[in-house]
Write a structure and sequence with these properties.
Chain A: Its main location: membrane. Chain A: One of its GO terms (cellular component) is plasma membrane. Chain A: Belongs to the binding-protein-dependent transport system permease family. Chain A: This is ABC transporter permease. The complex is a heterodimer of chains A (292) and B (90). Chain A has 292 residues and is mostly helical. Chain A has one domain: MetI-like fold (Orthogonal Bundle), CATH 1.10.3720. Chain A contains 12 helices and 2 strands, in the order αββααααααααααα. Chain A is globular. Chain B contains 3 helices and no strands. Chain B is mainly α. Classes of the chains: A mainly alpha (292), B mainly alpha (90).
Chain lengths: 292, 90
């Protein structure tokens, strides 16, 4: 038997290649070019070398924004992933209730980012907002415009409300893909509910959770509209995350060079963390299948 | 193209990246890479090590720029040595 070697299918990749070139590679190259120059207009630019990078790396405001960003991203991951899996486990498996639950759970995902910010901004108001009013009526001194802890609490709650459904839906689809035979085998072994979760459901969810964690990490690392609308980065700069710091620099002050240098650093951090996440989870999985 | 504000060094940088990728492709075609385990905690192929090398080199440059006053070419030299070590024994 001769296996036919035909690699023509690779030509089908060309459209994607072209799109990615225009949407990602060329802009990225441009940003790299901008990051080593001081640009005043189309025809006047001065070579600055690594000066912008030095300035950005040593800027205490940006260092603080970076730390806040990591704190925020890990906080929401630590809440959303377990919560999402939990919701997926509780969702009904078939019948009209399953469809209804899917629609209900997916609802927050359909709301535009700006609108989410607005909803929560109103919700957090102490005079007319349900959350703010209830908290201040019950004696809590709640004010997202003056108290950094309140602002953080509200932003994290908002993100959990908005994005836990994504993890829940991914986990739900992962759970539905597990063949019944596994559960039957578990019943024969009289496995406990916890054992079923730990040794059947969780391992089978690894793939969707990799996607979920990566998506949530990258998205939360780039979060902009929601905190911008909700708190405007305040009080002070306690909720100013990286993209807002970047936008202030690039758009409001029009410092293209520093903003570009900062974007490159930002990009490298996202790339590194995503790669570490991906490799760690994939390696874990490979080790597990090697053991079996 | 003028809106992209190309400069000599950045053009050289991207051309060398493109050359490295092309070179790796040709190398892979004539002698396919075998996944192996070196001093890195995970088993890697040649391409994996190249990616890890490039990414860590970027961070080496950032560290040199951010923490020291040394010329950036010092960081490039360190990265080159690191790259060789990584590709050979990583």
């Amino acid at each position: 038997m001769n296996k036919i070697e035909n690699n023509k299918a690779w030509f089908f990749v060309i459209p994607v290649f072209v799109v990615v070139a225009f949407s990602a590679v060329i802009p990225l190259m441009t940003v790299v070019n901008y990051s080593v120059q001081d640009i005043f207009g189309v025809n006047s630019a001065f070579w600055t070398g690594t000066e912008w990078y030095r300035e950005m790396l040593r800027n205490p405001d940006l260092q603080a924004a970076l730390l806040r960003q990591f704190a925020f991203s890990f906080a929401i991951l630590a809440i959303e992933v377990p919560l999402g899996i939990g919701i997926a486990l509780l969702m009904p498996k078939k019948g009209w209730a399953a469809s209804a639950a899917l629609v209900l759970v997916a609802m927050p995902l359909l709301i535009p980012l700006n609108v989410v910010g607005t909803i929560w901004q109103i919700l957090a108001r102490t005079d007319i907002g349900l959350l703010g009013w209830a908290l201040s009526e019950s004696g809590v001194d709640y004010n997202i415009n003056a108290n950094a802890v309140d602002a953080w609490f509200t932003i994290i709650l908002m993100d959990v409300w908005h994005w836990t459904p994504l993890i829940a839906l991914l986990s739900y689809s992962g759970l539905r893909a597990i063949p019944d035979a596994y559960y039957q085998a578990a019943r024969i072994d009289r496995a406990s509910r916890w054992a079923v979760f730990r040794y059947i459901q969780l391992p089978k969810l690894t793939n969707v959770l990799v996607i979920g964690v990566l998506l949530r990490f990258m998205d939360s690392f780039m979060i902009y509209a929601e905190p911008f609308v909700l708190t405007g980065g305040g009080p002070g700069s306690s909720t100013t995350f990286l993209s807002q710091a970047l936008t202030t620099m690039a758009v409001a002050q029009f410092d293209l060079g520093p903003a570009a240098a900062f974007s490159i650093i930002y990009f490298l951090i996202i790339l590194a963390v995503s790669w570490v996440f991906y490799t760690a989870i994939m390696t874990l999985q490979k080790d597990k299948s090697a053991q079996q | 193209m003028s809106w992209m504000h190309w400069t000599g060094p950045t053009a050289g940088f991207f051309i060398s990246i493109a050359l490295i990728l092309t070179g790796m492709t040709v190398w892979q075609y004539f002698s396919p890479s075998i996944e192996r385990k070196g001093f890195l905690p995970i088993s890697t192929t040649r391409g994996d090590r190249l990616f890890i090398g490039l990414l860590t080199s970027a961070f080496i440059h950032l560290a040199f720029i951010g923490v020291t006053e040394l010329h950036v070419l010092v960081a490039t030299a360190v990265s080159a040595v690191w790259m060789v070590i990584l590709m050979r024994w990583g």
